[in-house]
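Quick start: what a row looks like.
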Amino acid sequence: MQPVATVLLRAMIAVLIALLLFAQVFMIPGVAADTAARNPELAYLEVPGVIGGVLFLVLIEVVLVCVFVLLSLVRADRIFSTHAFRYVDIIIGMMLASAVLLVASFVVLLVAGAVNPSILILGVLGVVVSLSLALLVGVMRGLLHKALQLEQDLSEVV
């Protein structure tokens, strides 16, 4: 089951990355232009909004690529190696960067006076989810480290 699951997960990640690229190229600029047209007093936020939205999706894409590589290591039965830690550390960094980006975006909207309760809730939720995922992956990194130690100890015994 594991080989089938890793292949399916890798295929789904490839589809997700393609959809995110589509959103970066077509959807975010279109939504930003439409929003600027409907709210001319906030039109100056169109370019920063596009940059922030595209950057946020880039962070997600980097995480997906790292998960793809980690799944490749699982499939090759090499997940318990120091090589895997690089990708786990990148994932943690991207999660923390997304929280910072969300806070910065919220501050920009707050200064512009474009914050309503739904944006406030979404901003707080996004930061909490980003930080929670970073902590979760940090715990999993510790488990990977422990498993690597146990595997090395076991190989020395055998």
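That is the whole record. The mean pLDDT is 92. The radius of gyration is 20 Å.
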